[in-house]
Amino acid sequence: MKKHLIFVLIILKVSIISNIYAKQVEYLEILGKEKEFLSRWEITSNNNEQIISGNTLLDELVVKTINGTTIEWTNKRKHKNKSFTAIRNNKTIVITGQNNNEPINKTINVSTIPWFQTPGFLLKPFILSDKESIQFLFLRIKTLTPILLEVKKIEEETLILNNVERIAIKTELYPPNFLKYFWKATMWFEKETGNVLKYDGLISGPGSDTFQIIYSK
Predict the structure, then answer these.
(1) pTM value?
(2) Which end of the chain is flanked by fewer CB atoms within 10 Å, N or C?
(3) Block mean pLDDT (10 aa), the chain, length 217
(4) Residue 178 to residues 77, 149, 175: CA-CA distances in angstroms?
């Protein structure tokens, strides 16, 4: 009986571990004409849950998702005294933290639109689907205010990254209103896997520095 119980516990443990999958990826970030940084990411998946951890040029962050949409985002700015956590609860997002030793306490009313705080990773199901466009919510890191964004598939394109030729789906990212005439970014995703390969746009709003993210390994 005891041996049988141990065997069952081992099977359960192996089953739980087998549902957990983690991978590490790196991207070269280029801000303006001078600043470069190799960002490192770890993506851990467990059934319908995912944790995305990143160490980037400007931030250290952790994003938690359920069923492909963000439910929690913790962020620490590297060069500023600012850190916070944003948690979604149905149609609201509650943000707490501090900025220059001043408390951050705000509640944002949002609709049921999915929240993609790391769209490069969370748009993978869309890329692999037959949909031509999708809308999602994104929080601006400077103001911690939401913006509605739309991403649209444009065409297939061949990219050469690290001497490897990849078939990519080129997309455009923009606000689905008059603001798209002032801000727009381009993203490329690998057609076969849905993984993000490249981002080309601005770091913030109109007039800000250019910002590129390029898959490294």
Answers:
(1) 0.87
(2) N
(3) 45 49 94 93 96 97 97 96 96 97 96 95 98 97 95 97 95 92 94 97 86 95
(4) 30, 12, 8
